[in-house]
Design a protein that fits this description.
single chain, alpha/beta, Rossmann fold, 2 domains, ten-stranded mixed β-sheet, Methyltransferase, TIGR04325 family, methyltransferase activity, Put_MTase_LIC12133, EC 2.1.1.-, transferase
Length: 278
Amino acid sequence: MTASLWSGSPWSSHARSALKGAVQAAAQGFSPLRLAGGRLNYLSPFPRRFTGAYASYDAAMAAARRRTMAGYDHAEIASVAFTKMCEVAPWDYSVLFWMRSLLPEVDGLVDAGGHMGTKYRAFRPLLQLDDSFRWTVYDLSAIVRAGQSLAEKEGLTGLSFVERIEDAGAMPLFLGSGLMQYLDMPLSGLLARMPHLPRHLILNKVALRKDGAIVTLERIGKSYVPYQMRNEAEFIGDIARLGYTQVDRWSIPSLSHVIDTHPELGRSESAGFYFRLG
């Protein structure tokens, strides 16, 4: 795969490339009309959730920077869908099951990519957490500032925020709910920055593929954010090399996605995992 299948092309060239791609797709067994329709989505005046296919996070971010806003680190998008994210969703119940099981042996967690504390607000009543439980959110600077301000207004003393995961300290539980799509490195790289490897990892809504990894751009509010669909075997292998054992895996069919402009690449699969160290 090149750095981008359509990186940096003017809109008119997308249309021309769509016709060329349709001919190539026919030879490969893809539906020409399906592929051409996907490429012509670049010309649609209607917002698309997923656009483009890139070989790396950096290539996707470079493409995003050619648009009006790139990445998640913006105060303007901190509140996008915030209320909805504070609700318990169907795919949260496997996470809640394992968290409830682990509560007798853990006194805190780092919620990596935890936004403005959305899962804290959603889970706290169901887990009956008190302020002695350390719930620390690690996220980008703009999100952390917005989260801290809101938590102070609401008097949520059990919720804290850090911009560097090193500052979360040693935590027995690592929660990453919707983290992996947006993380710009393998998970092992992030875990290695912590003082000690957490004993437990709960990862949810991980976008996966059986084939090669792909990074697309997701539209969130006015911003375009690199969204990673990782190869499942490589993702699990990266974690296993740190000494973790996979205890559980669950599928989330409703969060499977097709890239609007590249339907021939197929659907991603969304899954959750519980890993234990040792």
